[in-house]
Amino acid sequence: MAVCIAVIAKENYPLYIRSTPTEDELKFHYMVHTSLDVVDEKISAMGKALVDQRELYLGLLYPTEDYKVYGYVTNSKVKFVMVVDSSNTALRDNEICSMFRKLHNSYTDVMCNPFYNPGDRIQSRAFDNMVTSMMIQVC
Amino acid sequence: MADAVLFEFLHTEMVAELWARDPDPGSGGKKKSLSVLEGLGFRVGQALGERLPRETLAFREELDALKFLCKDLWAAMFQKHMDGLRTNHQGTYVLQDNSFPLLITMGSGSQYLEEAPKFLAFTCGLLCGALHTLGFQSLVTASVAALPACKSLGSPQV
């Protein structure tokens, strides 16, 4: 159950950012911002590594006392960052991976929409609904 | 998957429509129609560049992205692979297609050589758009020596 989901463009500005407890939004914005450094570090490490590991899913970026932050980067250098509640230990890696895949598919659909200009904020209702469904999975 | 010929018909009509509406037959009008076609191709390329590499692993370097263009993008658009990819190792790549599907119907040889460029504008834009999504600002130009073979020159810069 995600508490915050963000889509960051390749120039590192947010295309979409939403969090569930709507008070304290700034804290999540700040967390996503700091996680971008970790994402960049992982991407550059991936480029230099001789191992043939070129996964899109970056895994756990960093844990804090209440939350865990996960990352995923697409081939077009668009990053997805997800913050989940630490207390919910039932969420496993492959579940997070499948949530990211759903996000990627929805993002691709937004991209193929002729009324969407690449680089604008995402305002698609379909994308909103999909993100809402991910946030209120377990209540 | 829809029949490839549907896109070919649509493309032919696009070129005919944009050319017919041009009231100024001088070189100014021609440039505008070509750039409209390239713009169309660019937006389509951006969307394709997002959708097609979804299942593939991350691209590690420029060559990976070019290989993706030659194999996956070309196969998705024209149901065949690009025939040749060459580079001068200084940032320019030449993509060669010996039987380009959009030109095949025009016959082979040098008969319609002057008409060929307007049928390549959309595809140039497509390559440019796909490269843009993958992170490379590039300049793509196409040239035809003899139908239906055509060469595209791309110079991507990150």
Uncertain runs of chain A with pLDDT below 50, 5 residues or more?
none
The largest sheet of chain A is: 5 strands, antiparallel
Helical residues, percent of chain B: 40-55%
- C-alpha Rg of chain B (nearest Å): 15 Å
> Kindly state the mean pLDDT of chain A as a whole number?
81
Distance between the termini of chain B: 34 Å
Bulk shape of chain A: globular
Structural class of chain B: alpha+beta
Taken as a percent bin, the fraction of beta residues of chain B is 15-25%
**Sheet/helix structural class of chain A:** alpha+beta
Low-pLDDT segments of chain B: none
Task: Give a brief description.
The complex is a heterodimer of chains A (139) and B (158). Chain A is built from three helices and five strands.
Task: List strands and helices in order, with pairings.
The complex is a heterodimer of chains A (139) and B (158).
Chain A: E1 2-8, E2 14-19, H1 25-48, E3 57-63, E4 67-73, E5 79-85, H2 93-112, H3 125-135
Antiparallel strand pairs in A: 1-2, 1-5, 3-4, 4-5
Helix pairs in contact in A: 2-3
Chain B: H1 4-20, H2 27-51, H3 62-78, E1 84-87, E2 93-97, H4 101-104, H5 116-133, E3 137-144, E4 150-157
Antiparallel strand pairs in B: 1-2, 2-4, 3-4
Helix pairs in contact in B: 1-2, 2-5
Give a written overview of the molecule:
The complex is a heterodimer of chains A (139) and B (158). Chain A has helices spanning 25-48, 93-112, 125-135, and strands at 2-8, 14-19, 57-63, 67-73, 79-85. Chain A is α+β, with helices and mostly antiparallel strands and 139 residues long. The longest helix of chain A is centred in the N-terminal third of the chain and has 24 residues, at 25-48. Chain A starts with a strand and ends with a helix. Chain B is globular. With 158 residues, chain B is an alpha+beta fold. The termini of chain B are far apart. Chain B has five helices and four strands, in the order αααββααββ. Classes of the chains: A alpha+beta (139), B alpha+beta (158). The A-B interface holds A 10, 46-47, 54-56, 73-77, 104-105, 107-108, 111-112, 114, 118 and B 43, 46-47, 49-51, 53-54, 56-61, 133-135.
